[in-house]
Amino acid sequence: MSILLTEFGYILKLDFINTITVSLLALCLGRLIKTKSKIFDSIGFPAAVTGGLIFALINFILRTLNIVTIVYDTSLQNPFMMVSFICIGLSVSLHKFKREGKRLFIFAILSLFMALFQNVIGIIIASIAGINPLLGVLSGSVSLSGGYGLSSVFGLMVEEMGVNGAHSLALSSATFGIVAGALLGSPLAVNIIKTNNLKAENIIDKNDISIIKGNDKFPITPQALFTSLTLLFAIMSLGLIISMLLKKHTLIILPSYIPAMLCAIIFSNIGGKVKVFNAYSDLIDILKNTSISIFLSMASTSLKLWELDKLIFPILIILICQVLFMYFYTKYIVFKAMGSNYDAALMVSGMCGFGLGSMTNAMSNMGEVSSKYGYTLHPYIIVSITGAFLIEIFQIPIILTAINIFSK
Global pTM? Predict the structure, then answer.
């Protein structure tokens, strides 16, 4: 931790330990607010986002008054995100996907059109407003369903093409998207469930969402913790290596969590069968939920809300339209296409999460709704593979095509 004095006031730089501490405090605050406030609990705001945004708002006010600016060390944010994706991958059973083939295909196609329309909306409004259409692409699926990862990659690419401020604008749009995705997904699903009087069918235990390979249960012991952490870090390292090699030898840029998740899927379907390693389902589920909560709290707490002033008026209009599009698209098309039942409502909250922010948002949204009405397996399977993997495959060619067309 260090303190610097500038003309704009003090700058308080927190190290990663202090950052995690503040994130955990924000998470505790969010849970306390949900416990004490029936409004927040009934609406369905995630506790991590509720507490995190309060801390981010306090930081924004202190900075605006030139008192102090808190700078967080978010170096552990990506590892926490990777752990959550690896745990999701460990929950994927390809056998289950065979039975979910039809609904998975429909949801994947709906996600493809979602990403396509996000770019169309951005380009059309940017063209009408008289700004560079490439900025419309950046405020489309790049920053929304692409999140910080694709925003950083394509933001720098567009800036190198001569579009000044493209990188910071893309990151600011991603910030807007994370907040919007967290605030829209759960409340919208809760509203759909209440309005249509939907009931969860085939409710399962929360722990059964984790590793799906039978009913074996293992005690949570120090040995189980050691084994699970070894597995998680091994898969994380392998994902980083694969991502680096792809970038170096093929020029394919993939966020490291994608190959890591694929490795986890392979392990859960092959490694477990040949008894290479024991995966402790209860403990993996605890690590997944913990990492998701900490990541989302850290991401919300460290939001630089003052950067939103970089969103010029046309871009802000684009982003508002994107949120409205997501609301109507998921409520009136996705919900009906996926069966107009409880599972469909849960998938609506998931698509709002990864379609506007990140897959971590999606899991948090779905968990928030499930904790109120019941956990069902199928939405988690379908949303996990689509939001964490298929959407990346779909949208990167769309983004590259749009950039190539409008860069001429």
Answer: 0.67
